[in-house]
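Late entry, evening session. Most of the bench is empty. Finally got around to the prediction I had been postponing all week. Sequence below, unchanged from the version circulated by S.P.
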Amino acid sequence: MYNYEEEINKTLTEAGFDVAELTQRQKFIILEPMEAPENYYCDGEITAKEAELYWTRRLHQSGLSVSDIGKAIKLNN
């Protein structure tokens, strides 16, 4: 049986994150470009560069470390 939460945790663990230290909100923000591109691009109302800037700002605001932000960027590029 497919377990979405397990799959998310596996993806994040493989990217170098300690999933036990991440909140659900942080997980969502990290994976938003892959899991919710319509939200990431604000339904196509902003450019790719604007989407990336907005997303990295939210990564910072979520309390992630600089190292984890780097991992998030690498995972989604």
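Two things to note before I forget:
The mean pLDDT is 96.
The first helix runs from residue 4 to 14.
Will write this up properly tomorrow.
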